[in-house]
Amino acid sequence: MSHPEYNHIYSNNDKYHNYAEQVELSIRKKFHKNIFSRFAKAINEYELLKEGDRVAVCISGGKDSMLMAKCFQELQRHRKFHFELVFLVMDPGYHELNRQMIIQNADTMNIPLTIFETQIFDAVDQIEKSPCYLCARMRRGYLYHKARELGCNKIALGHHYDDVIETILMGMLYGGQIQTMMPKLYSTNFEGMELIRPLYLVREKEIIHWRDYNGLKFLQCACHFTDACAENRDGAVQSKRQEVKELIQILKKTNPYVEGNIFKSVENVSLNTVIAYKQNGVKHHFLEYYNKINEEK
Length: 297
Description:
Helix content: 40-55%
Number of helices: 12
Mean pLDDT: 86
Strand content: 5-15%
Number of strands: 8
Largest sheet: 6 strands, mixed
Structural class: alpha/beta
Shape: globular
Distance between the termini: 71 Å
Radius of gyration: 21 Å
């Protein structure tokens, strides 16, 4: 694979002899503060890894999951306790060029892949209503199943900080609810399995910077519905997530702290000032305790 941008960056440096080492060096040096330190912080702050874990690092072929794989490799080099990694790729029916791009990128970056096939794209092709939602659920189920088959107790997904704040706003604006994308979750259908999101504190702009700095090219959109519009710039097809991305950028023009405030909003929820909330599927209303508060005064 030819990476002219990267070759230009390192053309005068004979110390590093292969591309994978150069990519790894960028994580250790240039992007240590904004990527690897935040990756490690999420691991520690949310207790995403424990002694003896065997993690299926799920790779879709995009920039986020590929970076996550490299960060896990770096973490394993300096690990304070033993854990194992399986770099898992599910082929849901990729076009051959897309599949080969994933394999070639992984080979170039020294990521040993375990690939398995499914027919998810064919299954959802005939679905008219919410095909993306169904596809996502099916993919998650297959990943859990294969990971457990391989002896893993966790799957790691590449969602990042911006995914989190966008999900918060999407829930409010389009779903009429306040919820967030959690840093880790126990599976409800696969006992003993857990989902973790170690890029939880990493900003998307830093991932893009890392990708471009290294001259990397990854899959952006590989499903049958959007093969031809990986980066739609004419506005003809626009997802709700893209609408929210643009809304955040508009708000940021007058409030540079808006992204951090959105993230913090779900860390600072005051149950005394919400009308109703759900806990473990049970809805609670403020009137349940409203009069009791007055009586206790």
